[in-house]
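A further point concerns the way the authors explain their paired sequence and structure data. The central task, working out the structure tokens from the amino acid sequence alone, is never made concrete. I therefore recommend that a typical entry be quoted early in the introduction. An entry of this sort, consisting of the sequence and the corresponding backbone structure tokens, reads as follows:
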Amino acid sequence: MPQILIVDDEPLIRMLLEQTLEELEDEGVEIITAENGEEALSIIRDKNPQLVFLDIMMPKMNGFEVCNKVKNELKIEGIYIVMLTAKGQEFDIDKGKCVGADIYMTKPFDPDAIVAKAREVLGL
């Protein structure tokens, strides 16, 4: 069963992303959430989701640290990481690329673009 992990410390953003992606549950996709970077890393290690929507500014471990750990230190294969953040400056985008993010999207996000990216990554 394909899995999507939504990581954001803001409950309303997590809920909005879940609602945006819920139509994929009818196609057999499981949606998992985490509220901080440490929890996200634990879920990634345990469940190995195919797609992660990852916020940057979070407590305990930020999104850059999580992405770097997954992509460069642990070298976990088969995980597509979308940095989804309000930090849209060129410096932040470059940093996202440096730590291994597959794509960088800024908030506010277009729900159709989120669903389209999920479908593309999961091959739906």
About this structure: The longest helix spans residues 111-122. The helical segments are 11-21, 37-47, 63-73, 90-98, 111-122. Residues 3-122 form a domain with the Rossmann fold fold (CATH 3.40.50.2300).
